[in-house]
Amino acid sequence: MLNISNRKIPSSWAAEEFQALRTMNSAKNGRVLARWLIGIMIVLFGCLFLPWQQNISGKGKLTALDPAQRPQQIHTAIAGRISAWKVKEGQFVNKGDTIVSLAEIKDDYFDPELTKRLEEQLSAKENSIKATEDQVRAIEKQLLALESGLKFSLQKSRNKVKQSRLKVFSDSTDFENERVQYDFSKLQYDRFKSLYEKDGLISLTDLERRTQKLQETMAKKISARNKFFVSKNEYINSLIELSSVEADYSDKISKANAELGSKRSYLAEAQAEYSKLRNKIANVEMRTRNYALIAPQDGYIVKALKVGIGETVKETDALVTIMPDAANLAVELYVKAMDVPLIQKGRHVRIQFDGWPVLNFTGWPNVSVGTFGGEVAVIDFVASAGGDYRLLVIPDKTDEKWPEQLRLGSGANGWVMLNDVPIWFELWRQINGFPPTIDAGEANQDMSRGEKK
Questions:
Q1: What is the predicted pLDDT for the residue at 366?
Q2: Angle of helix 204-289 relative to helix 114-198, nearest 10 degrees?
Q3: Which sequence spans correspond to the domains of the chain?
Q4: Cα of 225 vs its chain's centroid, Å
């Protein structure tokens, strides 16, 4: 103090009694606070260099790895009416157990002895087919006989034509010879007649003999000519007979072929009807089996989609939902398209199931509590409707076993674990919206696996 004022503060006054004096002595507290702040800043700055495991988060639900083990609806193959329920919701059924009994609603199948009557029709049609086959074989034999008879008759007619032609040639030769003989006898007769009439050099008896000889040669000539004409007619008749035989047999063979074609056509139709009857019998038997809707595999009845007795259902209607037993559980996670290239099969995943308490530090999975381990088993090649890609995550055998109380369809959150980076790098990445990073070697290895596949 400068002691300029005449009023002085007594030394007996304590500084703690005055607020202003107390504030003037706070330099020590400020230094302590500053040291604490600097220490905290140093600690926080040091924490920026701590390792942080990058991850890709996704949401999904619990499902089964095998499609055959996922919940499925059981459909009826036939239209019918529900006559009885054999199970209750929540009941466990074995493969082959009857779930619902159906009754027939189509009048085509009302006859209780429909199968027996169809079998009778099938037997009658089979006998008809056998009789028709016998008729076909008989007509085929008849055709063979006709073809053989045609060959024989044609050969016989051809031989007769040859004989008639030779006879015509022989008779024509005889006729020509008799004609020459007649001309020669006529010439001699004319000569003898001239000698008798002019000079009387020959007797009347010789002239009469020549006249008789002329008459004989004329008769032989006429006879030979008649034989020649007859043989010519016989030759023409043989040609006509040859054509007639061929036409007759062609007509008979054509009729037999027409009848054979008709029988074969009827046989084909009968065989088609026979096949249709067999098919109908098989369909009736299969339809009878479908009156009972059976469980396709072991599982639990989840929900009845059709209720009541007497309700009618159509073909392919779903009647009940079944949850298969002993499913291989998997988590169905959906991640963004920008993160898919960074994920490889076999990557470790931390999973949080709905209903299980969790204290999760995504960057430090070793200190997290309540999460379960998994690994990527399937990466879809096609995006889903929302543009995200689906991952199937199976349990990690080296990690804690998944809870037995899990049910298919329950929600789950997952984090696909990637590489370790400093915290400052992760903060910088999150602020800038960059995707996580992986080593170039891992990316190349994943690409080579994809090419091999």
A1: 67
A2: 170
A3: 53-67+327-452, 72-104+291-324, 114-289
A4: 87
Task: List Cβ neighbours of 237 (8 Å cut-off, separation of 6 or more).
Answer: 164
Euclidean distance between CA atoms 50 and 424, whole angstroms: 8
Average pLDDT of 117-126?
A: 90
Which of 34-48, 75-89, 315-329, 427-441 bottoms out in mean pLDDT, i.e. has the lowest?
427-441
Q: What are phi and psi of 403, to 5 degrees?
A: -65, 145
- What span, in angstroms and rounded, lies between the C-alpha atoms of 9 and 186? 211
Dihedral over alpha carbons 40, 43, 48, 49 (to 10 degrees): 170
Yes or no: say if 411 and 358 are a contact pair by the CB < 8 Å rule: no
Domain 72-104+291-324 in CATH 2.40.50.100: yes
Instruction: Measure the CA–CA gap between 171 and 232, rounded to whole angstroms.
Output: 9
Confidence of residue 24 (pLDDT cuts 50, 70, 90): low
**CA dist list (Å): 95 to 71, 98, 127, 411:** 15, 9, 43, 29
Alpha-carbon distance 235 to 248, whole Å? 20
| Ramachandran assignment for 3, one of left (phi > 0), alpha (psi -120 to 50 degrees), beta (any other) | left
Q: Which residue has the higher pLDDT, 45 or 343?
A: 343
What is the value of pTM for the model shown? 0.58
- pLDDT of 441 > 60? The answer is no
Q: Are 424 and 50 in contact (CB under 8 A)?
A: no
Q: How far from the centroid of its chain's Cα atoms is residue 22's Cα?
A: 96
- Coil, strand or helix: which one is 398? coil
Answer with the residue of higher pLDDT: 293 or 167.
293
In the CATH scheme, what is the code of domain 53-67+327-452? 2.40.30.170
Q: What CATH number was assigned to the domain covering residues 114-289?
A: 1.10.287.2610
